[in-house]
Each structure stands twice: as C-alpha cells, then as structure tokens.
Amino acid sequence: MATSTITPARSRIAMTAFAIIACACLSGCWTSYPRTVAYSESVAPVGAAVDVTNNKGDVRVIVDPSAEQITATALIRVSTKVAKKERPFLADEVEFSASLEDDGPWPVLRVRAISPDSTAVNHRIDVLVSMPRCTGARVNNANGIVELKGVSGSLQVENKNGPVLVRTPHRMDEPVALVTTAGDIAYLVPPGSTGDIDANSHDGIVSFRSMDVVSGSTAQGSSFHTVLNNGANSVVLRTDKGDVRIFVREDPLSLRVKLN
User: Fold this and answer.
1) What is the model's pTM?
2) CA geometry: angle at 7 spanning 251 and 3, to 5°?
3) Which of 36, 108, 134, 258 could form a disulfide with 73 if both were Cys (CB 3.0 to 4.6 A apart)?
4) Per residue of the chain (260 residues), what is the pLDDT tens digit?
C-alpha cells in the first residue's frame, strides 16, 4: 500500500411538488419549504449527467441503483427569527428550476437554486439529487458541503466556503477537478481507478493511501503529485484552507470521513 502525507437543449415536462415543513436544526429553528421535480420517464434507468448551481447551501448527488426515477429537491430553510408571515415570501424569492435535457451522449439534469442574497443568514438552500445512475457531474456551489456519492464519469466541482466529498464504487478514469476556497476535500475511489493527481492545500495536510500502483510521487511544500495506475486523466484537488485526503481502497462507500 502506498501512503503519503505532506503538510502545507430540449427539456422534458416535469411535475413540481410544494410543501411546508417546520423543523429544528442544531443552529436554531427553521421553517422548510421543499420543492421537488421528478422524472419517471424511460431515461431514468439509463441515468444522466448532472449540472448543479447553488449559491447558498449544500449540494448532494446520491446514486441509488434501485431508484425508478430521477428527482431534484431544493429544501429552502427560513429561520424562525423571520416573522412567520414573511417566511413564505422570503422562500418565494429563491429561484429553483430543474430540467432534463438532451445534450450529447447522455441526458443532462440541470438544477439551479439561486438566493437573491447569498450572504444573508436568515435562510439557506439545500439541494438533493437522487438518481439510478450518474454519468458525470458539474457543481458550482457556495456556503455548504458538496457530496457526490456513487457517481461516475468526469467530475468538476467549484465550491466556495465548504468541503467536498466524493465516494464511489466505480473506477474513475476520466478528468476530475475538486476545488474549494475553504474546507476539506476527500476523494475515495476503488482499485483500478487512474489519474495524474495534483493535490494542494495552502493551509492543511495532503494524505494519500493507495492499494494500487503509483509512480512519480513528489511532495513539495503543500503540493503532492503522483500518477495512479499509469493514468493520463487529470485529477486536481485543491483547497485554500483545509485538508485533502485521497484513498484508493475496496468498498469506498463504507469509509466514513469527517470533514471540516
């Protein structure tokens, strides 16, 4: 086992459901307004790529092979410190849309959740995408975690002020770029994955553990480079503040990682 640690076009029609739920959270009380778009067409078992933009909260893309449809949900949480009669109006100001479009070899689920004030502390938007198969993902997010579970294909994540977690049982052999301004990054993949890996943490550590063959490993300052299984596909992992962890091991989904 190798181990290294260093120190610093066409949209289909969907149904939308609306509901209101009162809930509590660790940081206080919220009133939640879920909005869900579901696709139960024949494309669902085939899967799709995802393209998600959220400027205020979490993004989770979860692959469930038993799922019979693709769903995208935005949970708009409004603080109970906001006057009760004003909460629905604040939630209504959030723009949410999801469309399944034909774009190249795979359909693409495009999800947009946009707050008119991404700096306000009285509300947040958490996006959950559930699907039977994910053939690639692009996520642009702010102020929350980005979690991609069970995905495959090319990945591109840009996060502002939040960690990034990728866990998948599928061999990864396409380009990957996971970047955040602040937060940990964890990239957990199975043996047989490949990559020309560049990892960098300006204020943290980079950890690398692999069951597979690596070559050309170098560490300089807060940067680490290695080639996994002679891979030519670029794998870039970069955080300005936090740790970077790379694990190549059997059953990555069973590994629990705490992120800051």
Assistant:
1) 0.89
2) 35
3) 36
4) 565 544 433 333 343 444 444 444 445 699 999 999 998 755 555 679 999 999 999 999 999 998 888 999 999 999 999 999 999 999 999 999 999 988 777 889 999 999 999 889 999 999 999 999 999 999 999 999 999 999 999 999 999 999 999 999 999 999 999 999 999 999 999 999 999 999 999 989 999 999 898 999 999 878 999 999 999 999 999 999 999 999 999 999 999 899 99
